[in-house]
Amino acid sequence: MATLVEPEIRNRPRRKHCYTMWETLFDIHTKYRPIKPIGRATYGMVCSSINMDTNEKVAIKKISNVFDDCGDALRTLREMKLLRHVGMRM
């Protein structure tokens, strides 16, 4: 389950909330509400969420330390392009 956390940042955008799941901090738009964690992998963690505007279920992936390794950054970019392309076809 997700726990709402509000860090003490003064210049924080109003349209975002912070949630923790499995000791991972997610900083997401207020229109999304996390439901539960789905899994953890090499590059990060995935949680299921709901879009409060459309009631559509979505998955949000948090990728940790994406720029620490050039190869990992390229793989992540490829995955994002692929997911964007697949999403347009649905």
TrEMBL record:
Swiss-Prot/TrEMBL catalytic activity: L-threonyl-[protein] + ATP = O-phospho-L-threonyl-[protein] + ADP + H(+); L-seryl-[protein] + ATP = O-phospho-L-seryl-[protein] + ADP + H(+)
Give the signal sequence positions. Answer: none
The first-level EC class reads transferase
Domain (Protein kinase): residue spans on this chain: 32-90
Q: Which UniProt keywords apply?
A: ATP-binding, Kinase, Nucleotide-binding, Phosphoprotein, Serine/threonine-protein kinase, Transferase
Q: Which GO terms describe its molecular function?
A: ATP binding; MAP kinase activity; protein serine kinase activity
Q: What is its EC number?
A: 2.7.11.24
Glycoprotein as UniProt keyword: no
Q: Which family does it belong to?
A: Belongs to the protein kinase superfamily. CMGC Ser/Thr protein kinase family. MAP kinase subfamily.
What's the protein name? mitogen-activated protein kinase
Q: Which organism is it from?
A: Medicago truncatula (Barrel medic)
Q: Give the organism's phylogenetic lineage.
A: Eukaryota, Viridiplantae, Streptophyta, Embryophyta, Tracheophyta
